[in-house]
Design brief:
The complex is a heterodimer. Chain A is α+β, with helices and mostly antiparallel strands. In chain A, 17% of the residues lie in helices and 47% in strands. Chain A has a domain of 155 residues: Clam (outer membrane lipoprotein receptor (LolB), chain A), CATH 2.50.20.10. Chain A has five helices and 13 strands. About 6% of the residues of chain A have low confidence. Chain B is α+β, with helices and mostly antiparallel strands. Among the domains of chain B are: 159 residues, no CATH class; 201 residues, Up-down Bundle (Multidrug efflux transporter AcrB transmembrane fold); 141 residues, no CATH class. In chain B, strands 2-5-1-6 form a four-stranded antiparallel sheet, sandwiched between helices. Classes of the chains: A alpha+beta, B alpha+beta. At the A-B interface, strand 6 of A face strand 4 and helix 17 of B. Strand 6 of chain A pairs parallel with strand 4 of chain B.
């Protein structure tokens, strides 16, 4: 309870004291501190793929995440995908478990631009990002509700994107809208909706990624989420994938 | 009725200034809309949207992210050297930035999957960090020339050309995208040479040529008309009035098309030329009649009033028959563009007719200037001499006509047909050269798209698609196929070392998981796995007959393996096959339809079936001869030349009508047939010849069209009009029997 009061107070204080004068770099730091705050997460998620004609297909996964870059997930629906698992470890290594073959394959990709399981999210989009460390930024505009920032990935980030335009909600310091630019074109838009407080954190429970080129979109909905449950390290292993 | 018409004519003469003003306001309004008219060079729009082939073709565009593929060929001394590869890379990256291009595929961005034990590595085929390594470049060149999957797709056999494939968004403005691409290439200052190919560039080129044709041909056509009309009428009004008539009709039709949002197509772009030639005819006959009456001593007003009364019937009948000729395309043609062409040209004919009995007399009252001499006696004598010769050699002329017609009839079935759009471009044209390079050095740009509907999560169903693909490769020899089957087999090889479809549906589902989301796969399978597309590419050089046979064999095969799957075939070759069939049908149906309708009309006017037959005889012989000449000169029956029959009937029959009506009226006043014939020839005959030359010259300009079908069309219609005019005079001068004379 003390934690919540502290968090709320500090947010309100930040809002009153600094919001008008915040530099873009400070805004990104604030975004990072909000987004990367949980130590670990256990998420039950529904992924809905909507094609350009409006047809939908639904998948459900359970995903565990620890820190910024350890992630393991398993498909629990539909039945033909049940048991397929993925383990993502730094740097750029993905282990995939294919139950029908009973095999684990280690996939290394030069590009992180590959689609994450047929969704409009790439592996790069699924990575935890530290904006203040990986990007340079400049303020484009602001109004009563949003800061609009242009962030450009640093070379070390090895990003596929040329730049992102973030609309950061002034109340929660969550980028509720991100426009992705590839080779001069705005190719995708991510919108975060239904911001709720879960435990000590504010999270957007619905994320909609629209591919502006194909008309395809992916809706990720957090059915339930658990923070800071002290996930053991042996979850993030091949053995767990095969279980 | 006559007296009512007479009153109407008087009113026109009386309110001539109002008529002129109204016409001018109408023209200006239509002119405003004309400026907004748009061009549609997409040949798939020839066929109605409800056509199964088109439906499936559009469906692929909708469901598989665009059915249109453009090609850039980069040519240099050697592709696998640092400079060339970097230029291909730069160009590919520039193309990815273009709005309207959703995927670019070239040697610079191809991704390969390699596997070793449990490790799968996804990497680019060409590493741009190793471009200075000669050995590496040589190995990669060998790879692109020998690998089963890539051979002939991205690198030419001589190693000097590289293909960049551009996948266009289905709903993009193709012309704009193509123009932007060309602009980027121009600005890139590449050392290598670029060639353009594929449907989007082809459509863009056709669009450019349509505009070029319209601007390039209209002016010379007008100039030729001015010259001919000057020679015939020897007066300024005689030149300007028919010209105004035609121009107003053209503006009206273009304005109406623009208001109705009907775009100009490769066919309707000849409407202005046709209206220039045809639209002038009615006022030529009118002016001719006024001059004739003036030469008999009547003043301008009297001459105009009487001309209106006398000429109204022949002109309206001529307009009606021409209208029938064009409107017959609506019932006779399956092709949308031809139907549109028929409707709007018919509208233009009606406008021209209306103007010739309203605007023309109204203007002539103002101009007032009488023509000094109608025709000198000397000229008349010369004309009479020709007529006498025609009568003298009548047996020979008839024999010659019949012989020519029989020879033509023999050659008629051998007439060739052409539906491939590349044939629209003249040999040696820039675009054709580019296309030849793509066809010769790469696997070809023609593609059958075979849609297989059914549950593609089932290995059993995929095996059926595989059976069709294997049949196409092994039995038909079409080795360049692209399918989800190949991708699945390659992925299965990576997972368990066997290049074959997986053993069960669970394994298949696991493989789908691995490849899902790859942009290039969206072109091969629907996301819900309810349908897949098998692409079969081949070179353009195959004859349509061979392509048709290939399609039939594929159709037979898919029927055999059908089972739970629902196969359908589309793609541009299928569109061509359908077009070819439609062109032939369109030619036959519209020609006979217009011939039949006009026969009924003539029989009704002259109250005689025999006269009805005789009325259509000159044009019937003409059409047979023209088709014979087409066969002999190897001019194909195509999207434009298929119009010849009905247009010739619609326009050519006017000569018969004018001739027969005048002859009838001369026979009423003068019982002597020879005198009546001579009078008819000296008056209407002369007007017919003026019209024949004007119309022929107008159409002859089309010979200089950049598009081959239109060029051929111009030549043929010129020939048709000359033959129709002369055969009317010859046949009627010699074939009217004594009984009929009475």
């Amino acid at each position: 309870m003390k934690k919540i009061i502290f968090l709320l107070l500090s947010s309100i204080l930040t809002l009153f004291l600094f919001s008008e004068d915040l530099k873009p770099e400070n805004i990104l730091e604030k975004v990072d501190s909000i987004t990367n705050a949980p130590k670990d997460q256990k998420i039950f998620m529904t992924i809905t793929l909507v094609d350009r004609s409006g047809e939908k297909s639904v998948r459900k996964i359970i995903m565990f995440q620890k820190g910024k870059d350890k992630r393991v997930g398993k498909f629990i629906y539909p039945s033909d995908k049940k048991g397929i698992g993925f383990l993502s470890l730094p740097p750029n290594v993905m282990h995939i478990y294919l139950p029908a073959y009973k095999k684990i394959k280690n996939i290394t990709s030069q590009s992180k631009n590959g689609s994450f399981s047929g969704t409009d999210f790439t592996y790069e989009d699924m990575e935890m990002t530290t904006f203040s460390k990986d990007y340079t930024c400049k303020m484009l505009s602001q109004n009563d509700s949003f800061y609009n920032l242009e962030v450009v990935p640093k070379k070390e980030k090895n990003s596929f994107y040329e730049k992102l335009i973030l609309s950061v909600d002034k109340k929660y310091f969550i980028p509720t809208r991100i426009q992705f630019y590839e080779k001069g074109k705005n190719t995708k838009v991510l919108e975060r909706e239904s911001i709720e407080r879960v435990k000590d954190y504010y999270i957007a429970k619905v994320m909609v990624m629209k591919n502006l080129q194909t008309g395809h979109q992916t809706i990720m909905t957090y059915d339930s989420i658990f923070f800071d449950t002290n996930l053991p390290d042996d979850i993030f292993t091949d053995r767990f994938l095969k279980e | 009725m006559v007296s009512q018409r007479g009153k109407g004519m008087e009113r026109i003469v009386k309110n001539n200034k109002l008529v002129i003003l109204t016409t001018l306001i109408f023209t200006l309004t239509m002119g405003f809309f004309t400026l907004k008219i748009k061009i549609n060079p997409d040949v798939t729009d020839y066929l109605p949207e409800s056509d199964t082939v088109v439906k499936n073709f559009n469906k692929i565009g909708r469901d598989y992210g665009g059915s249109l593929t453009g090609f850039l060929v980069y040519e240099s001394d050697k592709i696998f050297d640092e400079r060339s590869l970097l230029e291909v890379k730069r160009l590919s990256e520039e193309m990815e930035k273009v709005e309207g291009i959703n995927l670019v595929s070239s040697i610079s961005n191809l991704v390969d999957i390699k596997s070793k034990d449990d490790d799968i590595r996804i990497e680019k085929v060409i590493s741009f960090d190793s471009l200075k390594d000669e050995k590496y470049l040589s190995e990669k060149e060998k790879f692109f020339k020998s690998d089963n999957f890539y051979k002939g797709k991205f690198l030419s056999e001589d190693g000097k050309k590289s293909l960049i494939i551009l996948f266009f968004d289905d709903d993009c403005d193709q012309q704009k995208v193509c123009a932007e691409i060309k602009n980027i290439v121009k600005k890139s200052e590449l050392k290598g040479k670029i060639y353009y190919g594929g449907l989007p560039f082809l459509f863009e080129e056709i669009g450019t040529l349509i505009v070029k044709d319209l601007t390039k041909l209209l002016v010379p056509c007008i100039l030729i008309m001015v010259i001919i009309l000057s020679i015939s009428f020897k007066s300024v009004e005689g030149v300007l009035i028919p010209l105004f008539n035609s121009l107003i009709s053209i503006i009206s039709v273009a304005g109406i098309m623009s208001i109705l949002k009907v775009k100009v197509t490769i066919i309707s772009n000849i409407i202005p030329i046709i209206l220039l030639a045809v639209g002038s005819a009615y006022s030529i006959h009118f002016i001719s009649k006024v001059y004739e009456l003036e030469s008999e001593g009547k003043n301008r007003k009297e001459a105009i009033e009487e001309s209106l009364k006398v000429i109204f019937l022949p002109i309206s009948l001529a307009a009606l028959t021409t209208f029938i000729g064009f409107i017959s395309f609506v019932g006779g043609s399956y092709l949308v563009m031809i139907r549109e062409f028929g409707i709007f040209t018919a509208v233009g004919v009606l406008v021209s007719f209306f103007l010739s009995v309203t605007f023309t007399p109204s203007l002539m009252i103002i101009t007032k200037k009488s023509r000094s001499v109608v025709n000198s006696e000397k000229e008349n004598d010369r004309f009479v001499e020709i007529v006498d010769k025609i009568i003298k050699y009548k047996k020979m002329l008839v024999t010659l006509s019949v012989t020519l017609s029989i020879v033509s009839l023999i050659f008629l079935p051998k007439i060739s047909r052409s539906a491939d759009i590349i044939e629209y471009f003249k040999r040696g044209s820039e675009f054709r050269k580019s296309n030849d390079i793509i066809e010769k050095d790469f696997n070809g740009s023609s593609r059958f798209l075979i849609i297989a509907g059914g549950n593609m999560n089932s290995v059993k169903n995929l095996k059926k698609v595989e059976e069709v693909e294997t049949f196409i490769k092994d039995s038909l020899g079409l080795n360049n196929t692209n399918s989800i089957i190949q991708v699945i087999k390659r992925t299965n090889k990576i997972i368990e070392g066997k290049e074959q479809l997986p053993e069960n549906d669970e394994k298949l589902s696991n493989l789908y998981f691995l490849i899902e989301g790859e942009k290039s796969l969206d072109r091969l399978i629907k996301p819900d796995k309810s349908e897949t597309v098998l692409e079969v590419s081949f070179q353009d050089g195959l004859s349509l007959e061979r392509v048709r046979k290939l399609q039939e064999k594929i159709e037979e095969k898919v029927k055999m393996v059908n089972g739970d799957l629902n196969f359908s075939i589309t793609g541009m070759p299928s569109v061509y096959i359908r077009l070819d069939k439609s062109i032939l049908k369109s030619t036959i149906v519209s020609t006979f339809l217009s011939l039949g309708l006009i026969f009924i009309l003539l029989s009704f006017i002259f109250r005689s079936l025999i006269k009805g037959v005789k009325g259509i005889l000159p044009i019937f012989f003409t059409i047979i001869m023209v088709y014979g000449i087409m066969s002999l000169t190897r001019i194909s029956l195509d999207i434009a030349t298929n119009l010849i029959g009905s247009i010739a009937i619609g326009i050519g029959i006017d000569y018969s009508i004018h001739y027969l009506l005048r002859l009838n009226s001369e026979l009423k006043n003068n019982k002597d047939f020879n005198v009546a014939t001579k009078n008819t020839l000296l008056t209407t005959g002369r007007a017919i010849l003026t019209n024949v030359f004007t119309v022929s010259a107008g159409f002859a300009v089309l010979i200089f069209s950049e598009l081959k079908p239109l060029s051929n069309f111009g030549f043929l219609i010129m020939l048709t009009m000359l033959l129709a005019g002369f055969s009317t005079i010859v046949i009627f001068s010699v074939s009217i029997t004594k009984k009929e004379r009475k």
